[in-house]
Amino acid sequence: MADFATFVLKNVLVVSLAVNMCLIWKISFEDEQTLAFSWENIRQKLHFHGCCSNGEESNGIGKDAHVSTATQILATTSSGAAPFVTDGGEGVVINLDHGDPTMYEHFWKQKGQETTVVTSSWQHISYFSDIKNVCWFLEPGLMSAITRLHKVVGNAVTEGRHIVVGTGSSQLYQAALFALSPHNASRPMNVVSAAPFYSSYPLMTDYLRSGLHKWAGDANEFSKQEPYIELVTSPNNPDGFTRQNVVKGNKGILVHDLAYYWPQYTPILLPADYDIMLFTVSKSTGHAGTRIGIDSSKRKYLHLGFILKCHSWALVKDREIAKKMTTFIEINTIGVSKDSQIRAAKILQAISDSCDHANQKDAETFFDYSYKLMAQRWKEIREAVKKTKLFSLPNFPQETCTFSGRTFGQLPAFAWLRCEGEVDDCESFLRRNKILTRGGKHFGGSTKYVRISMLSRENEFKLLIQRLPAIIS
Ligand SMILES: Cc1ncc(COP(=O)(O)O)c(C=O)c1O
């Protein structure tokens, strides 16, 4: 009897062990699937919605990017990520949707130690950087590097300005809207920009459904007798033109987004002198962001990291506005990463140093390098477009740059390409030819236009130049 009981007990144990193993395996398998799925979701969002590089909205290319399993996508996200091209490039999808400034990577690689920052674990521990400053989390080293660079380039007045630092100019944009919208108004503040406008503005304005402000569209069509904020992007994203404010009313506040007011993109004519000016290292030096991996607490998925963005800054005339912008960032992220600020300061100082010593050293300055590269790329894309009747590009007036002494027309970070003739949906047309771009409608413009990034790595750009003239239909 005792033997029989032991036999039954053993069997029950074995069965129970098997059931438990199955359960454990099932849970862990599902967990991994869920995690893998959510990672894939996040990866797609970050990659295809462009928020890792510039926070711009998606144009729904995620699904279309996977054209076929045999098709390769020439990724822009990392130098190691570009797949090996085996077929002369015809099968490769070229992704030029985002303005990811990887073209500058080569220059910075050559700099090596000169721009390397080493940080010990005991450094940068405090929340505070300079409690006497309106922007108390602004590192003094970054403040002097920003001031010095604007002086060297001559692109903005810094005297009598407060510098507010942000995690990307997207955060500063929201800080400016927060600071400029009355908090006791019966209606939200109107936010406008002349079309074609930077595709992130509507998104960033309305994303949190704030009661303080709302996107009110194309500034050219704004005729309400109500207060408004007008965003003036100059040179403009997406079309590259120099801009002024357009709304005729007298109830407006202007915010100047000068992300591209640097001498590789446009002749610098005079130091910008506006009430609120936004700048970013994303487009000036090309340091759009550094992703770091953190343990997301779920075992091996180490890549679900946060984005450690390099910095943008606002030059703000009014102390109260600067204070409110600082409050926004305080509530939002309790300041801005010091490690990133110190890295940004080092890079900006290196650029100023090289400009100061330009005549004594053989080494090329960053702005010389980036100007020559942009000029070469624009020459090549214009030649490629000339070979076909299907497309056209805007032309820009020539002006003399006070920084370099060179006379040239704009060399925008994006090509605002028009599909001529019958083609009404230029984005889909190019997508069929495996070139991913952002269609005009995302910028409040016509679908006959697309925006193509000019800031990619050389291999992607070269493929674009080969492919454009080869397109027949
Ligand atoms: C006009 C304009 N402003 C701001 C930004 C975003 O800059 P950041 O990367 O600093 O958020 C971009 C990026 O594409 C831009 O085109």
UniProtKB/TrEMBL annotation:
InterPro entries xrefs: Alliinase_C, Alliinase_N_sf, Ethylene_sulfur-biosynth, PyrdxlP-dep_Trfase, PyrdxlP-dep_Trfase_major, PyrdxlP-dep_Trfase_small
UniProt entry tagged with the keyword Amino-acid biosynthesis: no
One of the Pfam families matching this protein, by short name: Alliinase_C
Positions of the Alliinase C-terminal domain: 94-471
Cofactor(s) required, per the database record: pyridoxal 5'-phosphate
GO MF annotations in UniProt: carbon-sulfur lyase activity; transaminase activity
Keyword Hydrolase: no
Key words, A-Z: Aminotransferase, Pyridoxal phosphate, Transferase
GO process annotations (BP): amino acid metabolic process
Family to which the UniProt record says this protein belongs: Belongs to the alliinase family.
Protein's recorded name: Alliinase C-terminal domain-containing protein
